[in-house]
Amino acid sequence: MYYGEKRVENPIRWAMVGGGKGSQIGYIHRSAALRDFNFELVAGAFDIDPERGRAFGASLHVAPERCYPDYKSMFEAEAKRPDGIQAVSIATPNFTHFEIAKAALEAGLHVYLEKPMCFTTTQAEELEALVKKSGKIMFVSYGYAGHQMIEQARKMIEDGKLGPIRIVNMQFAHGYHNVAVEKTAASTAWRVDPKKSGPSYVLGDVGTHPLYLSEAMIPNMKIKRLMCSKQAFVESRKPLEDNAMTIMEYDNGAIGYLWSSCVNAGAMFGHKIRVVGELASVEWNAEFPNQLLYEVQGEPQHVLHRDMGYLYPEAVEDDRIGSGHPEGLFEAWSNLYSRFAVAIEKCDKGEEIDFWYPGVHAGVLGVKWVDKCVESADNGASWVDYE
Q: What is the pTM of this model?
């Protein structure tokens, strides 16, 4: 159980690029980072419009002289200050991720980057190489991985509770974009523009979330090849997709299915993952994140609840309130930002980071998966080797 005690010696001086007024994700980044006093928001380039960005920064109590017109001037000016920023979160549209993250790493900053990390596998691998060269930490914003029951599932699978894994069934299929909402919603319009979102829409936007959960739960199981079929049911979204089904074969003989969609009409969220083994299965649903279904063949269904004594110790470390009270996405993001802070401090001290997190390699795998899905779909839903 986490009681709010400090996890780093001194708050990390932190900035944001993007996340300004009207941002869908800016507030949750700030809430998650600032909740545990591990970070202090001291600077930002919050908006593409400098005046609007400065006004918004002032509303966050950021000093006017540290509300910058763009990320380049911020990195340059902060590097000259004795109290300059140590870390930055990048919450901007997809097409800007690569150049901003690269500049941040070259400026000697630790980075928390929105997903997908960039457009191409080549770019992603360049960022990974730069992370290794710089010695800095990069987190990729797979926020659902901060839910405690993901850790419980990981430990159960690791301990063989399910037996050999046979099937991984994943989906993130909501219905909020079942019609062309992008005609009136600017926050959606860029997501369906290939110049700004990259080679995919729902594969990168929602599909990579359950994909990463599978990687977190079963880290030693690797994709061998995949096949993807994608569609644009809203015609104006072509050449991008608003629906896709991906089949994956793993190196241990298991099979995976991932449904990515924004046209699942009537579905509020539709994000879940089920891992099926020879002996039992576990299932986690993001709409009920405090529970994990554990189903053993021949036994009644078990519903495991957050913060209970029968869970693994690792699964209760990040609880923030006692059992029975529901925790949600803000808590999950806070758990990841807390890990980000501890990772930064350990990195800067030259200490070993002895916990898992969605790092730069997870970002590479997400971009690579999207690339391979698009390659498969564009070649008539053919099988594509993963390596």
A: 0.96
